Amino acid sequence: MCDAKNESNEQVKRPPQPRALDTNLVVLCCVLTLTEVYKSERGAPETASMVSLGLRIASWLLRPLWRRALEDEDPSLTGVCELRRVCAGVVTHLGQDHGLIDHSVHFSFAVVLGGALLRLGDSVQALAVRDGDHGQWRALRVERLKDSWDSGQQDSAGQDKPRSLIGTVTSCDQEGGYINQNTYFPRQALCEGFQPVKGDWVLAHYVVSSEDWSCRVQQVSPLRYKRMDNVCVSFCKGDSGVLEDSVFFSLDSVLLPPGFRPTRGDQVNAVILESSQSLCSWRAICMTPVKRGYVPAVGQTPHS
């Protein structure tokens, strides 16, 4: 028993094995020794050649160690996977000072070569980078492929021409609203009789200022609208409802004859426009009952 304990104690107290790094230290000592030999035998050319060869071999052996030491001292060299590519694509989104190429590569107007004014649909070539495998692509340089060598006078003349923008109304109030969250339009730019709400698809005509590249919307109208006859109110609750299970309406934004309040089962004629409203893709802006000569009783609402 005692012998077993002594053996276990000896195993515990056994000195650690030398690390692999000690071999590099041996090589370093050899280098120093060769250097001293070179100093003492400076006059012998054979010795100098051997020392020079030994120094080269030692430097080659120690190179991995030096590289590992540099990586340990500079943490920024590890863990950074910056990917770079040259891509050709189409401008799919434009904001006040930025845009998107193919819905995925972000760029700012400051990196566009020559200060060219890009438009939706322009073909461009970009140098893009991203940090890591899952980072967002950002452009370091963007060059317009079409008409990239146009003169400044042609660009200036093109800025005065109205351009078209298709998008959805993302916010709206009494003063105006925004299209796609970044293009502002004033109330005066709305076509006659059009009262937009959030979600409406619109067609906007705008011009770009040659001074600050800002957009000035001149006219906003519904993108698509049509008339529907003899359609049924399939759902109605509170101040909103649905026509034919596909057209949304709200009593706050639909034009109705005096005294008419639609209820489920009513047959109506309606004017609708394209709009993203929950599960519906159309919105009614005007409704009238199908029955001709409809006159509500005084002080009474039909279908009440």
UniProtKB/TrEMBL annotation:
Residues 85-139 form the S1-like RNA binding domain. Keywords: Cytoplasm. It comes from the Eukaryota. GO terms for cellular component: cytoplasm. InterPro entries: S1-like_RNA-bd_dom (IPR025223). It is found in: Cytoplasm. Pfam families: S1-like. This is S1-like RNA binding domain-containing protein. The lineage of its organism: Eukaryota, Metazoa, Chordata, Craniata, Vertebrata.
